[in-house]
Amino acid sequence: MITQIQGKLVEKTPTHVIIDCNGIGYFVNISLHTFSQIPDHEAIKVFTHLQVKEDSHTLYGFISGSEREIFRLLISVSGIGANTARTMLSSLTPKQIREGIAVGDVALIQSVKGIGLKTAQRVIIDLKDKVLKIYDIDETSLIPNNTNKDEALSALEVLGFMKKQSERIVEKVVISNPEASVEFIIKEALKNL
User: Which homologous superfamily does the CATH classification assign to the domain defined by 4-62?
Assistant: First the structure.
């Protein structure tokens, strides 16, 4: 298994890099996240994942070990291949993916091109416990204690909406807009109730 490559950067594009390592040129597929982090210096080091198939051996490169770890977790999910995982890491940062999985944010995962509702749900179901354990994340710390959220929930209850349904919708609004005012939360929730 090739776990990292260090050498001279020969070519850098948003989808791949070519690294010359002692006269051998390695073609390494990368995400946009890695592309944006790779310096344009001659000397470069990337962490890699080698995917072996019947008809090909493909190298995927990452700027950090933690990005590679998220990639490996993603490809362990049924229905997520290496290219889909790379697309996810191009659309979202590793931290966004980690936190999205930890809080069960289906909409965030589904926002990636090529990921449908069922696949997004499967990613969260399969990886939530692993992500919480590996990264030692406390779910409650990711959702800020929000008095505006509480006031909005009270107002929606007074308006006659079911508490459970209101909580779910308000939670989504607060996750996507942590600094939202009470009025904004209520207006967004009413659109979805």
Answer: Nucleic acid-binding proteins (2.40.50.140)
